[in-house]
Design a protein that fits this description.
- The chain is of the alpha+beta class.
- It has helices at about 45-50, 125-135, 185-190, 200-305, 310-315, 315-325, 330-360, 365-375, 380-384, and strands at about 5-15, 15-25, 55-60, 75-80, 80-85, 90-105, 105-120, 140-145, 155-160, 165-170, 170-180.
- The protein has a domain at about 5-195.
- It is rod-shaped, with a radius of gyration of 64 Å.
- The termini are far apart.
Length: about 375
């Protein structure tokens, strides 16, 4: 089983720190089981040395100057039996560790689990790299570092050192590195730096493997960069084409807008000219109507001179109406109404005069008859 990070989050709040939990190692039942580095971890020896894991540094060797992506342990040399990790940085601290059983692909595994914090204020890009890897389901691996206890020259193994199935019995946990590469033999070297195996050969082998793995990783990165550059070139070309199309569309839209604005200006100009012409026409109509009204008023006044005030009073209301809104029809009605009134008055006066004359000339129509009767008797010949 690989030693992998199980959890990383900001839910357990401590300013400047990000909580992390990971599998440090898998515990075996006996020395017939061991990891790919030949190490057999027994639970009784893990418990016996578990106190040393508290405050154990969490480390990383960075590939770049931005401290974003890890590589290995950062081992530079072994001096007087002590490994030196001058190319690594302490990115966090272990606060607790315990043994538990977890399910791995449907199979129970006995493991050592550690908890701690990463320094997110000092290595924000590294913490973000871890989160993105875990979000993608690519859990970064770790590799634990142990060394001889204080006062001892080497790690003590049960039954001595063995190529496979060697059991660390007395040791201290000194660090755990978060790796960006597959933990291979270099992890085993770090685990046994203080063992009885010859250190210079191990260092030589470790450096060769590290360089080889680094070259392979760089080749892969260069290949990825090349593919990304091709994508960038294609995207740049597509962007250029889209930009040209967009610029052409913008130009066409601007041209159409300019045409529309020109037509709108022409329409507005025609509208303004029409409004001006209408205003002038209305002014002329008003002037004409005023002149016509004055003319008709003069004509009416001239016609009314022939009538007395009493005669004009007959059409007083219409005369006042005419002064406000003169018209030929109303003028004719006024004259006609006055003339009609005069005619009626004349007829009435004449009728009255005739009646008076008739009354003054009355005589006895029977007088002559009486006279004739007095002179002689009337005969038929007298009557006819």
């Amino acid at each position: 089983m690989k030693s992998t990070i199980l959890e990383i989050n900001n839910q357990k709040k401590t300013s400047g720190q990000t909580y992390i939990k990971w599998v440090v190692l898998e515990i075996h039942e006996n020395n017939t089981q061991f990891n790919k580095n030949g190490i057999t971890w027994l639970e009784k020896y893990i418990n016996a040395n578990l106190e040393s894991i508290k405050l154990m540094p969490i480390c990383a060797e960075f590939l770049d100057d931005e401290n974003s992506e890890p590589f290995g342990h950062g081992l530079t040399e072994v001096k007087d039996g002590t490994p030196l990790f001058e190319n690594s940085a302490v990115v966090g601290t272990t606060t607790n560790a315990y043994i538990d059983t977890i399910d791995v692909n449907g199979e129970p595994k006995r493991v050592l689990i550690a908890e701690g914090f990463l320094y997110n204020q000092r290595y924000p890009k590294f913490v973000q790299w871890l989160k993105s890897k875990m979000f993608d389901g690519d859990f970064p691996e770790t590799s634990v570092e142990i060394a001889a206890v204080e006062g001892s020259d080497a790690i003590e193994y049960e039954g001595g050192w063995k190529e496979q199935g060697r059991i660390p019995m007395k040791f201290d946990f000194t660090g755990d590195a978060i790796l960006g590469i597959d933990p291979a033999d270099d992890a085993a070297i770090l685990l046994e730096l203080n063992s009885s195996k010859k250190e210079d050969n191990l260092m030589s082998k470790s450096q060769e493997e590290v360089v080889l793995e680094l070259n392979n990783k760089l080749d892969n990165k260069n290949k990825e960069i090349g593919e990304l550059n091709q994508k960038v070139e294609k995207l740049t070309e597509d962007l250029k084409q889209k930009t040209e199309e967009l610029n052409a569309a913008v130009k066409a839209a601007k041209d159409e807008k300019a045409k529309a604005e020109a037509k709108e200006k022409e329409a507005q100009k025609a509208k303004d000219e029409k409004a001006k012409a209408d205003e002038e026409l209305n002014s002329l109509k008003e002037f004409k109507n005023k002149a016509v009204a004055e003319k008709m008023q003069g004509e009416l006044n001239q016609a009314l001179k022939e009538y007395s005030p009493e005669e004009k009073d007959v059409a007083k209301e219409k005369i006042e109406m005419f002064s406000k809104s003169p018209s030929v029809e109303l003028k004719n009605e006024i004259i006609s109404e006055i003339n009609s009134a005069i005619a009626r008055s004349f007829i009435a006066a004449r009728s009255k005069k005739q009646a008076s004359e008739t009354n003054s000339t009355n005589f006895d129509i029977y007088s002559e008859v009486r006279d004739s009767g007095q002179q002689s008797s009337v005969t038929i010949d007298d009557l006819y």
